[in-house]
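Project outcomes to date are best conveyed with an example. Our students and postdoctoral researchers have been running inverse folding experiments weekly, and each run begins with a structure described purely in tokens. The record below, which covers 184 residues, was selected by the lab manager from last quarter's runs and is presented without edits.
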């Protein structure tokens, strides 16, 4: 067993990433000034780099021919992903390990990153999508396999996102469905 592998379920591609509580810390996860990781919050600089340089949001290494995006129904309708893509094995791990994607959270966090950083005396610079979801019911999620994407400025968020052309969409697999109460 690898010393950075506290769980036998971590794929070899992710063994270089730090872990917290047995979970891999994704490349795009925000690290607080005191060194703690804020799961569910995005480091905007790393997210931008991952989108532009075609890096996996989970392992941080270069994407290959097949790119998998975690997308909500509204993202699929718009053929746009706010978060960078992943390698297929990183997406499979993320779908099982992430409490939101795996359906173990019925609602988003109720406390904001801005409040947490403010308490540490640090200014907050972004992640408006996380702020907008505070306390809201979780959405249905799917994994979408693609052959590529284009980086563009999303009109709703004003941030970079991935636009997927219809011919690039290879397969969609629902991983969690939402109900009127939040999750099924």
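After processing, the design step wrote out the following sequence:
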């Amino acid at each position: 067993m690898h010393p950075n592998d506290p769980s036998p379920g971590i794929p070899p591609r992710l063994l270089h990433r730090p872990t917290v509580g047995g979970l891999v810390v994704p490349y795009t996860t925000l690290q607080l000034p005191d060194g703690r990781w804020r799961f569910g919050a995005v480091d905007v600089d790393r997210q931008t780099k991952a989108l532009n340089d075609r890096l996996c949001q989970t392992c941080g290494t270069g994407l290959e021919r097949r790119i998998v995006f975690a997308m909500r129904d509204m993202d699929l309708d718009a053929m746009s992903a706010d978060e960078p893509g992943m390698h297929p094995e990183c997406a499979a791990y993320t779908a099982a390990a992430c409490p939101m994607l795996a359906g173990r959270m019925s609602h988003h966090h109720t406390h904001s990153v801005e409040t947490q950083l403010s308490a540490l005396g640090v200014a907050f610079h972004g992640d408006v999508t996380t702020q907008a979801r505070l306390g809201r019911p979780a959405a249905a999620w799917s994994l979408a396999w693609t052959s590529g994407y284009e980086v563009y400025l999303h009109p709703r968020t004003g941030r970079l996102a991935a636009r997927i052309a219809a011919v690039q969409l290879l397969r969609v697999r629902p991983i969690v469905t939402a109900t009127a109460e939040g999750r099924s």
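The first strand starts at residue 19 and ends at 20. Helices lie at 44-53, 73-78, 88-97, 113-119, 128-132. The training component of this project remains on track.
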